[in-house]
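Protein record

Derive tokens from sequence
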Amino acid sequence: MRPTGHHHQNTVTPQRIGRRLWVTPAADDTPLAPGQIVIRIDPGAAFGDGAHPTTQLCLAALERHCKAGALIDLGAGTGILSIAAAKLGASPILALDIDAAAVQTARANVTLNQVDDHVRVEQGTLTDVLAGRCSITQAPLVVANILSHVLVDFFAQGLAETVTPGGLLMLSGILRTQGPELRARLGWHGMTQVAEERKGEWLCILARRG
């Protein structure tokens, strides 16, 4: 399930996100200034071409908070967030999606961006992560850009346990009207909100595990 309000297109429009990130089509080879980070995406049938506000919020937040260390990307779609994280220094990275077509698309994009050594794309669910059936079971940064009601279910399943103590959880796919419900879950599960970004009607919430 993916955030609504965005009709998927099979083309990617080049765009700058944050200070250094550029999302471009797979075949785009336009030279950029030194220090810019290019993320080439062929969206296929998966969510995550960089156009949706939730993806942009997460990319900008990754640029600020991503550092060396493991990362889990729940609902990876095209793999855009995992690829950005790898290029920002995170490793190893688990990019997880329940959809087989999205997994294929993400694997192709990971190879396209030459981050195969850092990103492992797997098909599975949060339950699989918690049961130890995935390559990473806990990380200092966990990203979930999915619909709000799925995030609520994730908390009930044990989402907070995937974040190492002191680590960060990045949540998006949340409408502003859904913010209070998600914020309440943070407190119930031993997490403290440390930041919140907004773009239009959408939120990106960052919380730290105690």
Residues 4-9 have pLDDT under 50 and may be disordered. The first strand starts at residue 15 and ends at 17. The chain is about 30% helix and 30% strand. The CA atoms of residues 118 and 155 lie 27 Å apart.
